């Protein structure tokens, strides 16, 4: 008897995933699909099964007793592979809209899984654009983005789901100008609500997503003065996670913002190296203009960065810290070159800088190997279940 092909075996699962099928059979089929999504060959196999993918989406948004959680976790794993975004969206073009409804439903038990699928999908331009459109098309009154920010910033918004993955979703969305315009709208007070989450203790996923969002917003140099000014006062929220328990002199202490003075002896720095790097990069963006550099210098950022550099165990983060310190202690650029984000770099110089950057990365890799350090967790990496 001829052996059944893996594709045919996968197709046999389809009837058992249908809505209305016996709950025990649905659950067994969903668990089998979830197991398949745990490997590359399994995901590739499922990518060619449009009807099965559509059935999986239907289960993921179905009420109990449907095995919605396993179906949603399978979608998380599938969406972690950018090469599968096209077949997923072809099987169900309204996937971002439907998952968004689940993620923002304060009573949906598997809202975290729905948010994780959206976090994976929105890393790529096409699904990110579709999600942006879905947020813009929500009911009148409170905008979709406002609902997302409220869900992210409200403790206990969903008593059954922590919603940490809304952080990476917002970070991915903030790569789009329309989202940054919403976040930086001075009449909405959105950025201010995000700032306290840079030290959210329970989830590096949420912290990383929020810091990534703030970093993307800081590409808009027209808002730097406002962000650094008293209405937002962003810098202490970026420096505090980088600060340790150092005991500064009285003179140095007076240069620091109030929130960074006399920190307790058990003060811990941000434990995630990728988030530390993003925090430094965010401050670097804020130094793109002359007024921004002055404000960052005046608030004693150098003191925190000096101590961070002495402590930092990760070579890659230490190099990023060195570059920011050089900006703060170096001479001001020539007249006409004050805005570093608008400087036109000659092609030859750009090639030299890229080569230097490549050499620095290789040096960092060598140091990591010598120190036997494994790669740190990626704040914006794909979620998996």
UniProtKB/TrEMBL annotation:
Residues 351-385 are annotated as: Disordered. SUPFAM superfamilies: ARM repeat. It comes from the Eukaryota. Residues 282-335 form the Protein HGH1 C-terminal domain. Residues 357-369 have a biased composition (Basic and acidic residues). Residues 104-277 form the Protein HGH1 N-terminal domain. Belongs to the HGH1 family. This is Protein HGH1 homolog. The lineage of its organism: Eukaryota, Metazoa, Chordata, Craniata, Vertebrata.
């Amino acid at each position: 008897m001829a052996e059944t092909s893996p594709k045919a075996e996968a197709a046999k699962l389809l009837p058992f995933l249908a809505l209305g099928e016996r709950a025990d059979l649905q659950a067994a089929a969903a668990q089998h699909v979830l197991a398949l999504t745990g490997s590359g060959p399994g995901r590739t196999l499922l990518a060619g099964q449009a009807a099965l993918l559509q059935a999986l989406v239907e289960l993921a948004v179905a009420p109990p007793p449907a095995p919605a959680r396993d179906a949603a976790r399978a979608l998380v794993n599938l969406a972690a592979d950018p090469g599968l975004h096209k077949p997923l969206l072809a099987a169900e073009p309204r996937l971002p809209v439907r998952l968004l409804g689940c993620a923002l439903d304060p009573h949906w038990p598997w809202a975290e899984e729905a948010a994780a699928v959206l976090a994976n999908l929105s890393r790529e331009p096409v699904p990110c654009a579709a999600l942006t459109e879905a947020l813009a098309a929500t009911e009148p009154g409170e905008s979709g983005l406002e609902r997302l920010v409220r869900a992210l910033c409200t403790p206990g918004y969903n008593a059954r789901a922590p919603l940490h993955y809304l952080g990476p979703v917002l970070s991915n969305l903030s790569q789009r100008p329309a989202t940054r315009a919403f976040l930086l709208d001075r009449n909405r007070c959105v950025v201010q609500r995000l700032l306290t989450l840079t030290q959210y203790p329970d989830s590096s996923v949420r912290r990383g997503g929020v810091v990534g969002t703030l970093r993307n917003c800081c590409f808009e140099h027209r808002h730097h003065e406002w962000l650094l000014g008293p209405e937002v006062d962003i810098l202490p929220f970026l420096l505090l996670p980088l600060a340790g328990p150092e005991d500064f002199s009285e003179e140095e202490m007076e240069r620091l913002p109030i929130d960074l003075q006399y920190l307790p002896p058990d003060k811990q720095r941000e434990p995630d190296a990728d988030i530390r790097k993003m925090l430094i990069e965010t401050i670097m963006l804020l130094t793109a203009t002359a007024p921004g550099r002055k404000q960052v210098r005046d608030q004693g950022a150098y003191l925190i960065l000096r101590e961070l550099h002495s402590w930092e165990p990760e070579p890659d983060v230490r190099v990023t810290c060195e570059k920011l310190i050089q900006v703060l202690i170096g001479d001001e650029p020539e007249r006409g070159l004050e805005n570093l984000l608008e400087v036109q770099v000659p092609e030859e110089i750009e090639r030299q800088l890229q080569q230097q950057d490549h050499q620095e990365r290789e040096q960092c890799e060598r140091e990591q190997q010598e120190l036997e350090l494994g790669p740190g967790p990626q704040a914006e990496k794909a979620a998996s279940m």
